[in-house]
Amino acid sequence: MGKQKGTGVYSRIDPRPLFILMKRSFNLTLAMLLVAILIARSWHGQSAVSAGEPGNFARAQEPVDKPTTESSGSLSLESVERLKGIATGRSQIEPTREDLPLVMRALQDKDPDISSWACLAVEKMALRGLFQPNEPLALWTELRPKLRSAHAETSDWSVRAVGALVSRSELLADPLVEEALFEETLWLVRADDVNQCCRGAMLATALVMTLPKESKDNLEKLVSALLKVRVPMPANSEAQDAEATCNRLVTEAIRAAAGRVETQALLDDVALRLLAQVATINQISTLSGDHVHSELAALAGKTSKEVRDRIVQSILAAAANSDLLYSRTSGRYTPPKHAGAEALAVLASLLTREELEQAEAAIPPPAAVTDSEEYESMYGAAKEALAVRRARLDKKK
Q1: 4-23 burial by CB neighbour count: b if 16+ within 10 A, else e?
Q2: Which pairs count as long-range contacts for 383-388, CB under 8 Å and 24+ apart, including other chains?
Q3: Any residues with CB less than 8 A from the CB of 321 and at least 6 apart, and which?
Q4: Along the chain (397 residues), what's the average pLDDT of each consecutive run of 10 residues?
Q5: 268-277 long-range contacts, Cβ below 8 Å, gap at least 24?
Q6: Burial per residue of 243-265, b for 16 or more beta-carbon CB atoms within 10 angstroms, e otherwise
């Protein structure tokens, strides 16, 4: 006997609440999925931004060439790959003048990664002399805002691009560009952030070597700003942290400017800064690669007598330090050089008779070095310069 309509057990269950519950459950699941996607995107964005935070200067210096899987909004995948190949100096990609439109478009791209690669491409092309006289000015217009970018690679690599343009083009021939570049460099050097200061020191090194003679005031103002930079020096001078990097770059910029400083008070301050660097190198008995000894010796004839005497004693101590050896080549053997002895050769013509005797005693006898070729390479020039100085002093008797 069949069940009557409306009297069975299935007929007493109303399906509508079940459908409502299923719908709500689906909506909740969808909402949770959307939230997870948003969180993932936020985390990815934060990771990208962190590259521009302070403390990332050293890590941002060298690009990592990774395959491109997506195209930029304005550049094709092939164009991005070529841009990155130029930027990283990929051996199979040789930049040409025909790449200039690509680089200009990339500099204007809103994607900071793309515009950063473009900065490095400018550097590589400038070092190959691929730009015509009227083109660096247009590139400078695009690069200038990037110097202060919060994006680490953009700021670091735009500094490298501008430095290459300054050293390999007539960019500073325009007085307005020269003044603008001086202002940007000074702002970076004076920045509280150690990474910005590093960038300023890199630009300053290029700028002080190329500023025209009539820009003496700007040069000395920049040197004064560099001398005011005080970054604690780690016990290990070869540490690769930002503080050691900044000290090294600032000292390099001061060293590059030393020969062009004319005001004696400022020149004394420059010499004292280089003396402090030399004292650090002597103390740890190693050569850091920053050969400041010869540059310091060249200042001895221009500084005050007090500073001059300190320079002489520092160079004499360096000449006697057997650990200050270095090689001018990498990957193949050449006889070593001695940084202290090289500086002594520069200083020799200024020595008094008493100082000359100390200098001659500072150089070890040939028996101290088993290889005669190496001994000549390390000390030959210094011994010859000291012999010339002794002959002149004896002639004055």
Answers
A1: eeeeeeeeeeeeeeeeeeee
A2: 384/345, 385/344, 385/345, 385/346, 385/348, 385/349, 386/344, 386/348, 386/351, 386/356, 386/359, 386/360, 388/348, 388/349
A3: 282, 285, 340
A4: 40 43 46 46 37 39 52 78 92 91 96 95 94 92 95 95 91 90 96 92 94 93 94 54 83 93 96 90 62 92 96 96 84 89 96 97 92 94 97 89
A5: 268/303, 268/304, 268/307, 269/227, 270/223, 270/227, 270/299, 271/296, 271/299, 271/303, 271/307, 271/310, 271/311, 272/307, 272/310, 273/227, 274/299, 275/307, 275/310, 275/311, 275/314, 277/251
A6: ebbbbbbbbbbbbbbbebbeeee
Where helices occur in the chain by DSSP H, the ranges are: 16-50, 77-87, 100-107, 112-127, 135-143, 152-168, 175-189, 194-208, 216-227, 242-258, 264-284, 292-299, 305-320, 339-347, 353-362, 372-395
